[in-house]
Design brief:
- It is a single chain.
- The chain is of the alpha+beta class and about 600 residues long.
């Protein structure tokens, strides 16, 4: 996990000290050195915070190609870099890493090299031959990359607060922060600062100041799988057994082991030295630690069990919000933070988690509600989800169509401008009539961003590299191609093909036979309506008295009574902590 920052423009060399300060502002992302490097023509200065994973003796970046003058700063890991180098005829010397491969590949192939890279990354390349700065991000946005234009110069960084330090950026409360807890698309809560979308490629001409953006990879054009289930399971199992172990680091690492299907499969395929699980005493509904203990014992790993308290939460909240940059909706935020802290305390540098199967293999109950209907889901024994199912039970207008059903299930507030509805409708249109594909694309457009971003940002706060093996390119593309019946067989058993692969691997029945999804959920919403209610109310009220108008509805919602699993107060509290840590110049 590294950090990148930089600036390009005709007078970039004059702002070398500014870029140096930008790098220092996010040095926690790379404890092995923060350096900056200017291009030979003086029109770009790039910075890099280095966390050495592949080779502890490697020289920290940024990197420069002597022949072309190209300068690269790089955050992430390319897992197939040696295979790609061999295919392209690009030699690598002993001690050289994936970043050196990307540097030489760009000099030889330009942005065309991105399609062959299997990994997670955010990168910036300045090519003096063209006088252009390129920014690129991995397929699913595992690594963040923000940018802004100012005075004919383009500045970029791994963290949005690095760019707010570069220049003023008034706070803007995006409507989606009220409706689904997080900005969508390229938006951020800071005026003039954008997030480069997943699989985004931006080219900035330093002479003319012109920008060109495009997407270099999409799922939509993939052809549906034509084989039967048996052949699909064989192909999936082969991909799983090959691509997941490619993500195993050369040093000791930790796995976030909830005890659920996704993380347990990773445990057996990757054999981590340390497994970390989170449980909350008295919260049996959220406790899968018994299964985690069984899995850890089977693979011979140390199991670290963390039992956070409500007081841990009050102490952790300020650090969590500083790491996130701005509020993001994710039920596992606190649990993840505590897990990463435990990993860092053990001196490890890499942590692995199970993001991906829920989105691509219909693992969420909301998917079953849309595909099968609420009555079928409740009849399958998922009565704990009755409050969610009730949103779709027939009203005066009869059953809802897919778009309206999905919107009702993902909304956590009002959608007055129907922005969320537009995102969902567009996702289903791009899916070409395949509802399961549409659900995946809708997830990627709405709920995915906070999941993948919190994983990176919370881990980076502890100088950890977070890896998500299920996001391997071939696995993602294959899962998307599968017909719905290969992904979910009945309302209570999503991720069918992964369950069957787990069964074949010999995982315990409790893992592949589980009919409920918990993950690293937490009782924080219940705490905020119980023992922490006075504290939360005081924090929110204090911020509400000073908050700009656009933020007030979000904060005010947190003062209303909420249920055990209602995240409204949690989101308001995060917004209060975020606002209290900043002095915005203006707000919309």
């Amino acid at each position: 996990m590294c950090g990148i920052a930089g600036l390009a423009g005709t007078d970039a060399a004059r702002h070398e000290n500014t870029v140096a300060a930008m790098g220092l502002a996010q040095r926690h992302r790379g404890p092995d050195g923060t350096r900056h490097l200017g291009s030979a023509d003086g029109r770009a200065v790039l910075s890099m915070n280095t966390l050495l994973i592949v080779d502890a003796a490697a020289r920290p970046g940024p990197y420069q190609d002597p022949a072309s003058g190209i300068v690269l700063t790089f955050n992430g890991e390319i897992y197939n870099y040696r295979q790609a180098g061999a295919a392209w005829g690009i030699p690598l010397e002993p001690g050289e890493s994936d970043a050196h491969l990307v540097l030489r590949a760009w000099a030889k192939l330009g942005a065309g090299c991105l399609a062959a890279l299997d990994g997670m990354f955010a990168l910036a390349v300045y090519d003096p031959r063209e006088g252009r700065l390129f920014l690129a991000r991995d397929r699913l946005g595992e690594k963040p990359l923000y940018w802004r234009l100012d005075g004919g110069r383009l500045a970029f960084a791994s963290e949005v607060t690095t760019l707010t330090g570069y220049g003023t950026a008034p706070l803007v409360v995006r409507p989606e922060m009220l409706s689904i807890e997080t900005p969508t698309g390229a938006d951020t809560p800071f005026q003039g600062i954008q997030l480069l979308p997943p699989a985004g490629l931006l080219a900035f001409d330093v002479t003319t100041g012109s920008l060109v953006q495009r997407t270099w990879w999409t799922l939509e054009g993939l052809e549906p799988w034509q084989g039967d289930y048996r052949s699909a399971l064989a192909r999936f199992s082969t991909l799983l057994a090959d691509r997941v172990p490619m993500r195993v680091p050369h040093s000791d690492f930790a796995l976030l082991l909830s005890g659920g299907l996704d993380s347990s499969v990773l445990a057996y395929l990757m054999r981590p030295q340390v497994c970390v699980t989170v449980r909350y005493p008295g919260q049996d509904r959220l406790d899968e630690s018994r299964i985690a203990a069984t899995v850890a014992r089977d693979i011979g790993a140390e199991l670290v069990v963390i039992e956070p308290t409500s007081q841990d939460f009050t102490r952790a909240l300020p650090r969590i919000m500083r790491a996130l940059d701005y509020p993001m909706g994710n039920a596992s935020t606190f649990s993840e933070h505590m897990a990463y802290r435990a990993v860092a305390e053990r001196g490890l540098r890499v942590v692995v988690g199970g993001l991906g199967p829920d989105e691509f293999l219909m693992g969420y109950v909301r998917h079953a509600l849309v595909l099968f209907g609420p009555e079928a889901v409740l009849a399958a024994g998922l009565d704990a989800y009755r409050p969610l199912a009730s949103k779709l039970l027939d009203g005066p207008g009869g059953p809802l169509g897919p778009v309206d059903a999905i919107v009702k299930l993902v909304l956590r507030g009002q959608d007055p401008d129907e922005r969320v509805r537009e995102l969902v409708a567009d996702a289903l249109h791009r899916a070409g009539g395949d509802l399961a594909r549409g659900l995946t694309l809708a997830d990627l457009a709405t709920a995915w961003r906070p999941l993948v971003m919190t994983s990176d940002k919370l881990a980076s706060a502890f100088a950890l590299e977070r890896r998500s093996p299920y996001l391997a390119r071939d696995l993602v593309e294959f899962c998307y191609r599968l017909p719905v019946e290969h992904k979910i067989g009945d309302p209570a058993a999503g991720k069918r093909i992964l369950r069957d692969a787990a069964k074949a691997l010999g995982l315990p029945r409790e893992v592949w036979g589980s009919r409920d999804k918990l993950g690293f959920a937490s009782p924080v919403p219940g705490w905020l309506s119980g023992p922490l209610e006075p504290w939360a109310t005081a924090q929110i009220s204090s911020a509400l008295d000073r908050a700009p108008r656009g933020l007030q509805p979000l904060l005010a919602g947190g003062l209303m009574p909420g249920g055990r699993f209602d995240r409204t107060r949690m989101q308001a509290l995060m917004a209060a902590a975020w606002f209290s840590d900043r002095t915005p110049a203006a707000a919309a």
